[in-house]
UniProtKB/TrEMBL annotation:
One of its GO terms (cellular component) is plasma membrane. Keywords: Carbohydrate metabolism, Cell membrane, Cell wall biogenesis/degradation, Glycoprotein, Hydrolase, Membrane, Polysaccharide degradation. The keyword Hydrolase applies. Glucanases play a role in cell expansion during growth, in cell-cell fusion during mating, and in spore release during sporulation. This enzyme may be involved in beta-glucan degradation. Active on laminarin and lichenan. InterPro entries: Beta-glucan_modifiers, GH. Belongs to the glycosyl hydrolase 17 family. It catalyses: Hydrolysis of (1->3)-beta-D-glucosidic linkages in (1->3)-beta-D-glucans. This is glucan endo-1,3-beta-D-glucosidase. GO terms for biological process: cell wall organization; polysaccharide catabolic process.
Amino acid sequence: MPPVLPRDNTHWWCDPSTEYAFVGFSYEVTACQSSTQLNKEFADIRNHFNSRYVRLYGACDRDGFYDDIVDAAWDNGLGVHALIWFGFTGGDIWMTRRDTLLATLHANPKAKFVTRGVQFGSEPLYDNVLPHQELAQQVLLAKANLSDLNIPVTVSELAYGYQERGGAQDVLDAIDFINIHMLPFFDQNASTANNSWPIVLENLEFFVDNGGGKKMYFDENGWPSVTSPSVQPNSPYAVADIPNEQAYFELLDSKCEYLKDVEGRGIGWFAHIYSDNQEPGYGIYNLSGHLKFPFHPRTEC
């Protein structure tokens, strides 16, 4: 990062067409990590894995937390996909989170240089937290609020979340780029990760057909190593173990050239999630802080 802040971020980011392979991690923040922990783990994300971005997941409502995120991202040369978290219990706390985040983005002079985008999520359409017309309106209002900061806005969602709301074309039209949940383990035809590419393509096809050529990312994207009460397959043949978690990311690596050429200037993908301490079964690191398998994903091809 430069020693003096640039005047603006108009020409700050690399062209999205360069973001077509592994771009970083989803990172769960419900633990309200300290600034020390954020800096340590962001340094690992950047230096060990050559990541560009961190995609936030969950919510921390501690005052000043996103300022700590901004500092850790700035100090380690990372961008952030920020998140307005609806959660799973209903209520209006998401409005407070929205207002707090937007205020921080305006107040913190470094924020627009690390915030690559703001997401509404996670899976607000699938969870029916708002009618799709209201969600589209929220996206448009956030875009207007952030227009002077050059920060785009999206929704973090499954293909099925759109499809079960009649396609929710108004949301697809409103968002600036498309953050896709790609979780083939839950498909009714799931078996092993090595056999999941047709499922990935089927979900991707919806966004290619209806996304208007917008930039796409697989943001909540992975295969679990274990099941849990909240992680249960919809196919009796779906296998959750560490070899399949590894195989899924190796599958995406093997499709680097394909993902590079997808409409919308290629697809970048995140690994969900950084550590099993954040979401058991999905982490690249286990509960003891050790890598569950060798992970050196391609960042170009």
